[in-house]
Amino acid sequence: MGAKQYVILGAGMDTFAYRNPEILSKIQVFEVDHPDTQKFKKQKVEQAGWDIPDNLHYVPIDFSKDSLPEELKKSGFDSNLITFFSWLGVTYYLSKEDNVNMIKAISSISVDGSSLLFDYADDEFLFSDVKRVQNQIAMAKAAGEPMQSGYDYTELEKTLADDDFLLYEHLTTSDIEKNFFANRTDYLHAFEHINYALAVKKTMR
Question: How far apart (Å, rounded) are the C-alpha atoms in residues 140 and 146?
Answer without folding.
Answer: 5
